[in-house]
Amino acid sequence: MKKAFTAIAAAFTLTGLVTSNTFAAEYNVKKGDSLWSISKEKQLTVDHLMQWNHLKTDLIYPNQKLTISNKKTYEVKNGDTIWDIAKKYHVTTDQIKKWNKLSADLIHPNDILVVYPEEDVKNDVKAVASKKPKSSSAKNTNQTIKSVKTVKKSVKKKAVKKTINKVKKEIKMKATAYTANCAKCSGITATGINIKKHPEKKVISVDPNIIPLGSKVYVEGYGYAVAADTGGAIKGHKIDIFIPSLSKAKQWGVRNVKVKIID
């Protein structure tokens, strides 16, 4: 955590926010990179990387340029708590502690915290509010305010539904990778998906006692997939992800990942 210098504190004193500017930095994707590996290296989240770079999937390619920083700095005020700051920026207390290398919730006035805010909801609401017409009519003003509130409410519902309501359970798993390109591989999963004919399918092999077959999941560093296969070595908190390319499957190696069960 960094302490605020007197000169900086004097220059920027807007409601505790040292600066409202966004600090953007670029990262040039290297061969073998994944959003998961980049997020770990830069101490970010895969969701943030996808949001900042407008990615619909977690697929990236060499020499692609990614925005890796959308940070703001916040000067702690008297009476602030990590929970208050997390709520203000729509993030979690664990994220704030991770970004600032804090081992406890203890913070002090004038401390400078790095924050990577969730901007989607606020930006959508601001865009609607900026279109508010100038009018002396109280009726028109009330209609505009009501419209903004309606949009804000719908956007928040959409965001919450995307990030929270659909996730039934989150589990920490050990993930390995496999392919269907072997002499004795049938290419047919336990649920009947032919991954040899459809290599674009994202499938994981699971222990049905932990993740029921047919479940839709989100695997950190792999993306959305279906629990459609089983394996003799896949027991307990272990999964095997399907990757068509043998070289890329080997490149995956063994990783500790978070798996979100969607439905």
Which characteristics define this entry?
263 residues; alpha+beta; Membrane-bound Lytic Murein Transglycosylase D, Chain A; Barwin-like endoglucanases; 6-stranded mixed beta barrel; 4-stranded antiparallel sheet; 31% helix; disordered N terminus
Description:
This protein is α+β, with helices and mostly antiparallel strands and 263 residues long. The chain has a 6-stranded mixed beta barrel. It is elongated. The protein has helices spanning 6-11, 35-42, 46-52, 82-88, 93-99, 120-130, 138-165, 246-252, and strands at residues 2-3, 17-23, 26-28, 65-67, 71-75, 111-115, 169-178, 203-205, 216-219, 223-229, 238-242, 255-261. Mean pLDDT is 76; it is low at 1-22, 119-133, 135-139 and 160-165. 16% of the residues are buried. Helix 4 packs across helix 5 (93-99).
SSE layout and pairing:
Layout: E1 2-3, H1 6-11, E2 17-23, E3 26-28, H2 35-42, H3 46-52, E4 65-67, E5 71-75, H4 82-88, H5 93-99, E6 111-115, H6 120-130, H7 138-165, E7 169-178, E8 203-205, E9 216-219, E10 223-229, E11 238-242, H8 246-252, E12 255-261
Parallel strand pairs: 7-11, 8-10
Antiparallel strand pairs: 1-6, 2-5, 3-4, 5-6, 7-12, 8-11, 9-10, 9-12
